[in-house]
Amino acid sequence: MTDTSPDALGTVVGQLARQLAALGQSEGAELRRLLDGAEQRAGRAAGEVAELPDEVWQQVKELVSPPDWWSLLVYALVRISESEPGFTVGTLRLDGWSRMVTLSYAPEGQPGLFTVGLAVTDEGTKGVLLRAADGFRRVFAGQPGLRIEVAAEGDCDWRYPFGGTVHSPTPRSGLLVAVDWQPPVQPQEATGFRFALGPLHLRAELAQGGTAPLYRLTLGLGTPAAEAAEAAAGAAGPAGVRAVLDPAAALGALGAFLQVAPVTEVYSPHVVVTEGQSPRYGLT
């Protein structure tokens, strides 16, 4: 398996930071030009709102539609590289593919054990690369509320061209990537009512050369089959959505005349996409 060739982390991060700053400055300059023109045409004094003409409003929408998702993804790679020792940001070229920005995990003194590549910078095939060494397994939890698990069987080299089909040039390999992220959203509470959101869950299973499907992707809120009893007891369970209503408490003094048990609803909505099958939806 060919290793990536990461540049010095400080150099690459500096280059990426300058590119992101240049992007923000260029878009900011264009927006300023549009607003300056609208103000001059309206002839409004300072402190007065100048409505944007239709053609200017259309130009503003075109300026941010679509947003520069690639820069945001590269920014995410940079932030992840800073979350735990052993990560490096680099670059990689594959025949026929756009040049990649890569995030590799390579503990000191070891070759790259896991690499994510985003092919987005030049002409050529755009897409995602996932590489992992045989037997690699690690859980990353360097950021609060974020957990990433990677496990590989066989040397993995999975490629997903956007608009195409995921594939691997290696004859037999399997890769699991699971991501759980708890959004920083506090539970909402009122008298007699509580509402909470669980973690976002993504699980990708890739397999080649065996009886398992080529890919299985699970995306949902919370963990499927969350323990309803645990949620009802008020424990911090893995449910995606948990709502509790206590009618007696909500009615205050009138609640003393009611004998109504609290109502708890627990759901973990999810979708499963498997090779050769229709998507399956669930609320378990």
Q: Average pLDDT, to the nearest integer?
A: 74
Count up the helices: 5
Main β-sheet, spatial strand arrangement = 5-6-8-11-12-15-16
SS-based class: alpha+beta
Report on this structure.
- The structure is a single chain.
- α1 (9-42) packs antiparallel against α2 (54-63) and α1 (9-42) packs antiparallel against α3 (69-81).
- The chain has five helices and 16 strands.
- The strands form three sheets. It has a seven-stranded antiparallel sheet with strand order 5-6-8-11-12-15-16, with no helix packed on it. It has a five-stranded antiparallel sheet with strand order 1-2-3-4-7.
- The chain has helices spanning 9-42, 54-63, 69-81, 228-232, 247-250; strands at 87-92, 100-105, 114-119, 127-132, 137-140, 146-153, 156-161, 173-181, 188-190, 193-197, 200-208, 215-221, 241-245, 263-267, 270-274, 280-282.
- It folds into two domains: 1-181, no CATH class; 183-284, no CATH class.
- It is an alpha+beta fold.
- The model is unreliable at 1-17 and 225-236 (pLDDT under 50).
- A hairpin with a 5-residue loop joins β5 (137-140) and β6.
